[in-house]
Write a sequence for this structure.
């Protein structure tokens, strides 16, 4: 074959744009172009479900008990094509669930198990996830049987729960309700490295200071969920590893006790696989040929026995009985001295000194003899680090306390990115409200909305003050892990009330007026903040010459300080808000890129982002009243002036040394307005300009008002999970 020609055939008849390896994407030709792909993913075109399919309704009709029974039965039905360790798939399924959930990071809420993203690149081909493709194929008969109502995201986590229960452990609970995505998540930054397991120094400013790990990353190496089991950069040093274990788990909102419980409980069952050299192990799934059918890491030397399976290269089990949940992990870790050795695959691991064969696990394939007992560097960290050691000794002395702590930590690990309990379904949802679920009490609905609007309108607050406060309350919502938003009115609590982006003085003034109005009306403050934003918006719509009602549904509740984990809410603080033309500091990332990130987390499309920014500019809601991007002489009225003046060829734009811009009259040179890059990107980027031109047209002023209200309502209701069928 020569290039794209086959012997005896003409030139290639297909458009090479269909193969991403044949043609450079736009950002390869023009690397400075703003990439809007993160706002276009997971749309209707990628979803194979019918337009009227409602996953929540489907989940409610699922036979939950039957699904659980089938998954539990699968655990001990060993398949010849991928035999189970000791005849039990529990360890493999727990690893699948853990690694699906373990990609979550608190900083931006991305990753995690809530979308079934482990089915797609890059996660499906991470070195840390070697052979988890086999686990998912083992689950396929269950998925096939129950169909749409059982998402892969739910099934993967349920498999981990059923694995533990089939091995004698009582889990804390389980919630159905995760909905699958249908393609890779292009919005997640996993690191800048171009190779798997690259040196950790690439993502730290000081490898000895674990806290210098680049944000928002939460793993030590590219392609891992936490730390290298052999040690940082493959160099065993449990004390050093302990520092990085603490940091990586903290970045997924786990404290020291939860971290120790997860490490010990996770390694109480199952084993690591490295019983033979990995020289013949095949490539990862995404690199495989068509004949592999999505399988990766082929193992021609396995010979049909579990003993020769290969995943991490580390070989052995953490307990004597790896298919029974017991206290064996502690018996091993603290009952023996440990020394460094190499596995048959050449990986560093710790092995016990003078352990008799009778105390070692048997071979996983059922052959005569005993396998290896081992610990990873992260396990040894539990013994070497004084804080982890103290916690483990408490666990060891009180098995029931350990089991309860682990059960709660496992539930948190596997459910953290589902958001509030309103998103949980099924018979095993715990009744207890957990603080990491950001609980919010139900709010009142029986008050007089019309009378309340009149009170707000006569309060003396300006429309800009009302709109900005409602926006600031709602903009914290993150679709990644369903945290933040206007429900709960946490903008009035620490830490949000003191965030620079919320203009604390203005916020205190507005809340000081709205809170008594809410109390008198019998409404929640959360509802009144949103309703006040609507009142201000309706005033601006009227001033713009239109009449559009802004929808409002009561029922938001007010969270208390006791229901708010202030420390974990710190990560929700906006450091920039392009919609209000503000950023806290100068950053390496441009203002428009930070605006894209915020828009994607809020669940906005590129069109939503465009209409909201253009509208908020002319409404006069910029942070601290700055005038960047306020391209209008009618500030406070909802008009299309931002787009009209941005695209008016009577004007010209000029860059200033401080990174801002001036709009000047092309004929006279008069300075008319100033702008930031977050404004001008709507004229310079070809896609965004196409949206801007729609709203600059003479026939679309009414459409703009209608579209702005729709996008505004979308933001205000983003966290109203109680409104979803």
């Amino acid at each position: 074959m020569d290039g794209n020609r086959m012997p005896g055939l003409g030139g290639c008849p297909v458009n090479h744009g269909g193969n991403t390896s044949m043609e450079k994407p736009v950002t390869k030709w023009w690397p400075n172009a703003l990439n809007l792909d993160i706002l276009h993913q997971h749309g209707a075109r990628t979803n194979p479900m019918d337009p009227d399919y409602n996953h929540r309704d489907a989940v409610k009709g699922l036979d939950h008990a039957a699904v659980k029974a089938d998954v539990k039965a699968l655990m001990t039905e060993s398949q010849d094509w991928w035999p189970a360790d000791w005849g039990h798939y529990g360890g493999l399924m727990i690893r699948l669930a853990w690694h699906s959930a373990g990609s979550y990071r608190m900083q931006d809420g991305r990753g995690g198990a809530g979308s079934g993203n482990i089915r797609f690149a890059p996660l499906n081909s991470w070195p840390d996830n070697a052979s988890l493709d086999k686990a998912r194929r083992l689950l396929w008969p269950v998925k096939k049987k129950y169909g749409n109502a059982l998402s892969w995201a739910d099934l993967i986590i349920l498999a981990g729960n059923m694995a533990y229960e089939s091995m004698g452990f009582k889990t804390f609970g389980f919630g159905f309700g995760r909905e699958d995505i249908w393609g890779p998540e292009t919005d997640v930054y996993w690191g800048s490295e171009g190779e798997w397991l690259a040196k950790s120094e690439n993502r730290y400013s000081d490898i000895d200071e674990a806290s210098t790990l680049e944000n928002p990353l939460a793993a030590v190496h590219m392609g891992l969920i936490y730390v290298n089991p052999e040690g940082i950069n493959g160099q065993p040093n449990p004390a050093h590893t302990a520092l990085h274990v603490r940091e990586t788990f903290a970045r997924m909102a786990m404290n020291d006790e939860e971290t120790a419980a997860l490490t010990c409980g996770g390694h109480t069952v199952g084993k690591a696989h490295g019983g033979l050299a990995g020289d013949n192990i095949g490539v990862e799934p995404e690199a495989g040929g068509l004949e592999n059918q999505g399988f990766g890491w082929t193992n021609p030397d396995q010979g049909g026995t579990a003993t020769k399976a290969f995943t991490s290269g580390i070989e052995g089990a953490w307990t004597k009985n790896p298919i029974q949940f017991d206290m064996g992990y502690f018996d091993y870790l603290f009952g023996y001295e440990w020394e460094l050795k190499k596995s048959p695959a050449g990986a560093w691991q710790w092995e016990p000194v003078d352990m008799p064969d009778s105390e070692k696990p048997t071979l996983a394939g059922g052959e005569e003899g005993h396998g290896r007992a081992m610990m990873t560097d992260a396990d040894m960290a539990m013994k070497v680090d004084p804080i982890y050691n103290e916690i483990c000794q408490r666990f060891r002395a009180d098995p029931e306390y350990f089991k309860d702590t682990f059960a709660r930590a496992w539930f948190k690990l596997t459910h953290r990115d589902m958001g509030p309990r309103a998103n949980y379904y099924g018979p095993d949802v715990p009744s207890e409200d957990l603080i990491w679920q950001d609980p919010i009490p139900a709010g009142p609905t029986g008050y007089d909305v019309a009378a309340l609007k009149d009170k707000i309108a006569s309060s003396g607050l300006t429309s800009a003050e009302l709109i900005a406060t409602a926006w600031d309350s709602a903009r914290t919502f993150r679709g990644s892990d369903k945290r933040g938003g206007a429900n709960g009115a946490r903008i009035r609590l620490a830490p949000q009330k003191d965030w620079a982006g919320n203009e604390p003085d203005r916020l205190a003034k507005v809340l000081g007026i709205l809170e008594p109005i809410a109390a008198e009306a019998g409404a929640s403050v959360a509802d009144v903040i949103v309703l006040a934003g609507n009142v201000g918006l309706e005033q601006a719509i009227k001033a713009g010459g239109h009449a559009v009602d802004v929808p409002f549904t009561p029922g938001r509740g007010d969270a208390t300080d006791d229901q708010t984990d202030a420390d974990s809410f710190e990560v929700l603080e906006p450091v920039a808000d392009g919609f209000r033309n503000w950023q806290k500091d100068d950053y390496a990332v441009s203002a428009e890129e930070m605006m894209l990130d915020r828009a994607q987390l809020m669940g906005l499309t590129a069109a939503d982002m465009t209409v909201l920014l253009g509208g908020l500019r002319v409404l006069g809601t910029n942070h601290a009243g700055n005038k960047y991007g306020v391209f209008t002489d009618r500030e406070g009225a909802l008009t299309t002036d931002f787009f009209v003046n941005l695209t008016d060829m009577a004007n010209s734009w000029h860059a200033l040394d401080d990174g801002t811009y001036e709009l000047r009259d092309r004929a006279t040179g008069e300075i008319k307005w100033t702008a930031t890059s977050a404004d001008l990107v709507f004229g310079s980027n070809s896609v965004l300009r196409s949206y801007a031109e729609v709203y600059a047209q003479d026939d679309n002023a009414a459409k703009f008002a209608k579209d702005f209200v729709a996008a505004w309502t979308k933001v205000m209701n983003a966290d109203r999970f109680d409104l979803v069928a």
Remarks:
- The beta strands are 271-272, 316-317, 338-342, 348-352, 576-577, 582-583, 651-655, 661-665, 671-675.
- The first helix runs from residue 26 to 29.
- The chain has 23 helices and nine strands.
